[in-house]
Amino acid sequence: MAAPMLRWGCRGRRWAFARVDGGSCHRRGAPTGSTSNQIRGESSVAQQPLHTAQKTRKGEHKWAAVVGLEIHAQISSNSKLFSGSQVRFSAPPNSLVSFFDASLPGTLPVLNRRCVEAAVMTGLALNCHINKKSLFDRKHYFYADLPAGYQITQQRLPIAVNGSLIYGVCAGKKQSQVIPKTVRIKQIQLEQDSGKSLHDNLRSQTLIDLNRAGVGLLEVVLEPDMSCGEEAATAVRELQLILQALGTSQANMAEGQLRVDANISVHHPGEPLGVRTEVKNLNSIRFLAKAIDYEIQRQINELENGGEILNETRSFHHKLGCTMSMRDKEGKQDYRFMPEPNLPPLVLYDATSLPAGADPQQVINIDQIRETLPELPSVTREKLVQQYGMLLEHSFTLLNEVGLLEFFQNVIKETRAEPKKVTSWVLNTFLGYLKQQNLAVSESPVTPSALAELLDLLDSRTISSSAAKQVMDVKNRNPRAINKLIGLVRKATQSRADPVMIKEILEKKLSL
Amino acid sequence: MLGRSLREVSAALKQGQITPTELCQKCLSLIKKTKFLNAYITVSEEVALKQAEESEKRYKNGQSLGDLDGIPIAVKDNFSTSGIETTCASNMLKGYIPPYNATVVQKLLDQGALLMGKTNLDEFAMGSGSTDGVFGPVKNPWSYSKQYREKRKQNPHSENEDSDWLITGGSSGGSAAAVSAFTCYAALGSDTGGSTRNPAAHCGLVGFKPSYGLVSRHGLIPLVNSMDVPGILTRCVNDAAIVLGALAGPDPRDSTTVHEPISKPFMLPSLADVSKLCIGIPKEYLVPELSSEVQSLWSKAADLFESEGAKVIEVSLPHTSYSIVCYHVLCTSEVASNMARFDGLQYGHRCDIDVSTEAMYAATRREGFNDVVRGRILSGNFFLLKENYENYFVKAQKVRRLIANDFVNAFNSGVDVLLTPTTLSEAVPYLEFIKEDNRTRSAQDDIFTQAVNMAGLPAVSIPVALSNQGLPIGLQFIGRAFCDQQLLTVAKWFEKQVQFPVIQLQELMDDCSAVLENEKLASVSLKQ
């Protein structure tokens, strides 16, 4: 089987949520200079800093980029959208497949209440209008991992519409200022996930895993209100945090629980929008930013060289750092949408429309779900700013790094040190070390208690700031750091202590 | 014993006059004798005998499960049956053994019914003759009846008898033939545009289409999801009510079943008088193609109600004539969608071509589906194209609503039940039938039955009398949505009045006395 498209999400990548520092569209028109590219581990091939191309040359128009996103978030639920099969990542292939998931003839969809609640909750958190009546449709295409030959989705009347997502982008000299931005949300629709195809070109065969087939997805459509990779990446990160706070999706991009397609076009401001391309296969936030900026640049170059942009689907190749046409063999797709006849309209209620004596098990009450909404990331940040007097951008960093907020709160609980000092230590020293060592917060050798104790010592002036930093260094297994400490002890004991013994004692104390 | 009604044989089982195993064996032996009818695709002999054995134990222990315990039944081969091949009379599903039972099958088995086998049909239920399945056409048992044969002897033009057999109608012709030939007491059909009522009329049976949403479709391999309902074929109205009682009710696996509680058991009162009834006669159903014999019986039936004190009024269903073309668009569109899953990957037929996924799909579907199915898939995909969707599908849906509203208006005007013909004429010989293609036939033959499916209403075809050729003619009653019980009650009264004659198949059966014991001749025959 020839189709060369790989639909697998890339696995095993750490730091999928790494901070994006690449794009710098907010400094459009600023003096040209190489941006600090702090992305780790990837050499940027074929990737030029965006703003070089956006520099206004004499006699030329400025370019503006328009970016819209379609985001698929896998709903965190025990069972699939229309069947009772379990939802679990990395289970043995085809072990979570019901008769319906395999599309055995005669099977019918039965809507999962939990998925509807997740959609309503997400819609409310994203300031959407919740449609009290929504409909399901069939979208047809032949693909080996789509056993029914159609996907059940919500094309005509989705469950939620007209929302907005507010995210903050860093700006200013040191990227230290947070500017709030809004992207409109066109709609949120419930739909089925497909299975996975694994193409073995060597033996020219395709292996199909239907474990994912039928898992509930929230398709969140973001209007083209963004203008560069960083904006898109930050918006997606914010959405990810919201979904995680709500518990409606684990939104782990590496596990394919959050998938993003970007629609990108460029035009001269004041002129009609350009032809757009769709970039798929964006499986980390970092690549999302890279891919969008690459594609914007590619389109500008293409147009400036007299070429034209094709309305096509492109795929981001993360090793080469570029987008490539997917050359869809089927040509123009006509999905032949049709109402799903086996599912009645989905009707939701609120306090005013709830029929008297309705069985709470049989109806979904929007107002009731609204009451159970947890604290959203924007509120958490506000609280951090108010409670600890930290800068807004610090609150962003605390939330953006997985597990960092919890770590911070645990340190705060155990130390006498000033919150500002804790913030600075956690965000600068601690996070800096982790990044240097390429570790996640959960993998940190330094526990919150250890850092709290260290900060206490610092607070009581038992040790100096530089000594504390060296302790951190040692804790983080920097072999040279312990030698410095040994040096300090020898100095303090006027070289009377045996260096070997000092090392032993230090190592024991530091539980290395 | 085989000629008895379901209720009668159920009483005989309870009284120990016959055991379930004896009954099962009688049916199996008759199935073998009538194999040439081609009513069954699969005879599930071992399963049936095992079920009979278990039923027998229950009877011995006084733990009978009810009226259906030990009763031989048959199921159209488009209902999924766990462990038993389910083919839809298509190459595509030859050898496909479902791992689960359709809800209606499970319910019958839970009541102790014995599954004799899976009955023949038009491929994927697309047809009105039961002539277009991969296992060949079904022969109407009435072709071999004494009544028909005697009439034919009088006809000097009669041709070669063997090649002049009649079609059963369809698409549930196998189920109709199975019940008509006494090989079982009830059979499940499916009804999308008349597929249960049409063969019932041609085979002299009661063919009941319940309200949409009253009976689960889970496990029924769909033709048109929004119109399909499991149908019931029996030899009398009471039997249909017993089966309906076992099947009706909400199913968590079918979200289109209705949650309103229904009264169970589904007992039909015997109407003593019909003077409070209002019978509607839709004037649009009087079409030029209607045979004079059917027309005459229809009018006599109306007279019968009137003479017994019922109010009989003419009503108008003005959008009736658009029903067939509207159905064509909606049916083919859903067919195109429903058939998309048959790609040879998970189950069913798969071709040998493996150069690419697309080539494999194409060859698999070309080999797996007959011309009728492929033709409908092609039309349906055409109607669903973005550029055509508004002009065809959406318009057809609007027309569908108008058709449904026609019925609502008729019932709102005070009509309790509508009385119409079921078919244009009696069954025709196979050689005559195949002169027209499937599409033409389906369009003609569904003319009186199809609009009911658009509106989701209950309807039943009741055999009325024999034609001049000695063949059954049925009339149709249409009821209000979810007033299935009222509809069947009226039908039961009518059935009692007309005393339709029992098919005489002595030549086919050794056990002729068993059939003859129940023979009745038309006493208040509408034909005079």
Query: Unreliable runs of chain A, pLDDT <50, ≥5 residues?
Result: 1-56
Main structural class of chain B: alpha/beta
Measured as a percent range, the helix fraction of chain B is 25-40%
Number of helices of chain A: 13
Helix content of chain A: 25-40%
Shape call of chain B: globular
Show unreliable segments of chain B: 511-525
Report the mean per-residue pLDDT of chain B as an integer: 93
Organism (chain B): Homo sapiens (Human)
Family (chain B): Belongs to the amidase family. GatA subfamily.
GO biological process, one term (chain B): mitochondrial translation
Domain Amidase (chain B): 25-488
Would you write up a description of this structure?
Chain B: Pfam families: Amidase. Chain B: Keywords: ATP-binding, Ligase, Mitochondrion, Nucleotide-binding, Protein biosynthesis. The complex is a heterodimer of chains A (512) and B (528). Chain A contains 13 helices and 16 strands. With 512 residues, chain A is α+β, with helices and mostly antiparallel strands. Chain A has a nine-stranded mixed β-sheet with strand order 2-6-7-10-1-11-12-13-14. Chain A has a three-stranded antiparallel β-sheet with strand order 5-4-15, with no helix packed on it. In chain A, helix 8 (404-414) crosses helix 9 (419-437). Chain A is globular, with a radius of gyration of 26 Å. The longest helix of chain B has 27 residues, at 386-412. Chain B has helices at 6-14, 20-33, 45-60, 103-110, 146-154, 173-180, 197-203, 237-247, 292-307, 323-338, 357-368, 371-384, 386-412, 430-433, 438-445, 450-455, 484-498, 512-516; strands at 40-43, 72-76, 114-119, 186-191, 206-209, 229-234, 278-282, 311-315, 417-421, 459-466, 472-479. In chain B, helix 2 (20-33) packs antiparallel against helix 3 (45-60), helix 10 crosses helix 12 (371-384) and helix 10 packs across helix 13 (386-412). Chain B has a domain at 6-277 and 459-508: Alpha-Beta Complex (Amidase signature (AS) enzymes). With 528 residues, chain B is of the alpha/beta class. Chains A and B meet through loops of A and helix 10, helix 11 and helix 13 of B.
